[in-house]
Design brief:
Distance between the termini: 35 Å
Helix content: 40-55%
Radius of gyration: 28 Å
Strand order of the largest sheet: 7-6-5-11-12
Number of helices: 20
Number of strands: 15
């Protein structure tokens, strides 16, 4: 609906230009919002205030001219479109349209909200990519759940999504792990898992050999198991850094040289990343002849480009903030012509009884994501992580996550789904299930509010493919659950005295169940039928 409104507004403006009423200019991007106050409409646009100076009229006059130029059939979806001070154009959905949404949901079921924006397009979705030197922490969990949901939503939009984990198995951290397993003076990591690795591999030789053996063990028996069994994330590709170094690093450097984007200075080979917006040029080969870490990034970027992705998404931890401009510069230098999104996740604080639970991977007292999931359950862990925008610092409240009541957000949402299942089950058992539904009978204010919330789902799904703001899904689920509970308290769903209205309300409840279940599926948590 947002896209339809934006298109109609743009058509109205261009129509005024074609008729000579307005001068010709490029129409800027039109943003459509959903006002928080119902009296301000279901959708609102500020385009008139943006254009008023161009046509030398007041914003309110501009808004009224745009409305007068609207073309059908947009009016069939709205009962009212009005211009209000200081120049907003507000749209009020018609009850007929809202009832049609309920019919569409019950017809399309879980495919409601599917769209084809991504049809024929391929996305590389890289996330977590932690060093294989120990168990995944809660910080890794934050990026993991975020990346998984981005992949789910993009698939709903028709994209071919490749979930990818970059295994850092070629750097100095491997030798550090080896020293740690050998428990010598250069040990960098500690914890129970190091003790177990020591028993297995301490006799394998030097730090490098021990580190390589331990790395494979950590990857296969800790990281991959945590990802699949605890976090319930499926990867399509586990890309080895060693393989990238063997096959792509030198190839990428030669390509950059061929493009005349490198130069020598101070005995080192540099890449002209400043030409593509970076704050400084980056070293590819150091003065001692060793390839810099950034050279590995070059090889990996070339590998992705050769796999012909239309879009790349990369989720990095808070300590990688400085990597954004250099990686984007690198992608341009190597010729990537698609869209490249880099998401930085901020730090996580785990609290219990108002106090921090300490985290330190090297000291061995980290909060591992597997332990957190064991403590609060997968659904609570995932839902809580996803409630926060990635760019916001997060406090994970263990006390609330363990709560088995409606105070716990995920419990509240799941209870709404289970409640609807119970209502519809009761209708079937009492032979009061309606085979047909006259949605024209739905007119109660609580019914209309609930229908309006359901109508937001397709726009939300499409927006997330664009902005990757997956935290909006849990908040939508909570609002939808809240509005359903409010509807149920005010409206009798199974009403033997009014079977026709009861049938319509059962259809509305079923529509909520469908959308709530699909939202929970995208979030990656269960939709229980009983609680």
């Amino acid at each position: 609906m947002k896209k339809e409104i934006a298109d109609k507004l743009k058509n109205a403006v261009t129509d005024l230009q074609k008729k000579g009423v307005w001068p010709v200019f490029d129409v800027p991007e039109i943003k459509i919002d959903c006002p928080k106050e119902e009296k301000l409409g279901d959708y609102s646009a500020n385009i008139a205030m943006v254009l008023a100076k161009k046509i030398k009229k007041t914003p309110l006059e501009t808004a009224n001219q745009i409305i007068s130029s609207f073309q059908f059939p947009i009016h069939s979806s709205f009962k009212k479109i009005e211009a209000v001070n200081p120049g907003y154009i507000n749209f009020y959905l018609s009850e007929k349209y809202l009832r049609g949404v309920i019919a569409e949901i019950n017809e399309r079921k879980e495919k409601f909200g599917d769209f084809e924006t991504g049809k024929g397009k391929k996305i590389n979705n890289e996330f977590i990519s932690a060093n294989p030197t120990g168990p995944l922490t809660v910080g890794n969990g934050r990026g993991g759940f975020c990346g998984d949901v981005i992949g789910r939503v993009c698939r709903k939009a028709g994209f071919e999504v490749v979930n990818e984990f970059y295994v850092n198995d070629a750097g100095g951290q491997i030798e550090k792990l080896g020293h740690s397993v050998l428990k010598n003076e250069k040990a960098a990591y500690s914890g129970e898992y190091i003790d177990e690795l020591n028993e297995k591999y301490s006799a394998f030789g030097g730090a490098r050999e021990v580190g390589e053996a331990a790395t494979k063990d950590v990857l296969e028996n800790i990281i991959k198991k945590t990802v699949a069994e605890k976090m319930r994330i499926s990867y399509d590709v586990w890309m080895s850094e060693k393989e990238i170094h063997e096959k792509y690093v030198e190839k990428s450097i030669q390509l950059l040289k061929y493009k005349k984007l490198t130069y020598e200075a101070d005995g080192a080979l540099w890449l002209k990343t400043t030409k593509f917006g970076d704050d400084k040029d980056r070293v590819l080969i150091k003065c001692d002849g060793q390839k810099a870490y950034f050279a590995g990034d070059c090889g990996y970027m070339l590998n992705k480009i050769e796999r012909k992705f239309d879009r790349m998404i990369m989720i990095l931890g808070a300590d990688h903030h400085g990597y954004v401009t250099r990686l984007k510069a690198l992608s341009e230098a190597l010729g990537f012509a698609g869209r490249f999104d880099i998401i930085i996740t901020q730090m996580v604080r785990v609290t219990k009884d108002g106090k921090d639970v300490r985290m330190s991977k090297r000291a061995g007292n980290a909060v591992y994501i597997s332990e957190l999931i064991d403590k609060v359950g997968h659904d609570a862990a995932r839902f809580f992580f996803l409630m926060y925008s990635p760019d916001a610092h997060m406090n994970f409240n263990l006390n609330l996550a363990e709560e088995k009541s409606e105070k716990n957000p995920v419990y509240y949402v799941q209870y709404a789904h289970a409640r609807i299942c119970s209502i519809l089950r009761k209708a079937r058992n009492e032979n009061r299930e309606s085979k047909t539904a006259d949605y024209g009978l739905l007119a109660h204010p609580k019914e209309l509010v609930l229908m309006k919330e359901l109508n937001k789902f397709p726009d939300l799904a499409e927006e997330i493919t664009e902005n990757c703001e997956v935290h909006k899904l849990p908040h939508f689920a909570m609002r939808l659950a809240d509005k359903f509970h409010s509807f149920y308290d005010a409206c009798r769903v199974i009403d033997e005295k009014n079977p026709e209205l009861s049938g319509a309300r059962q259809g509305l409840a079923n529509a909520v169940k469908i959308v709530l279940a699909e939202t929970l599926r995208l979030i990656g948590v269960s939709a229980p039928e009983k609680m």
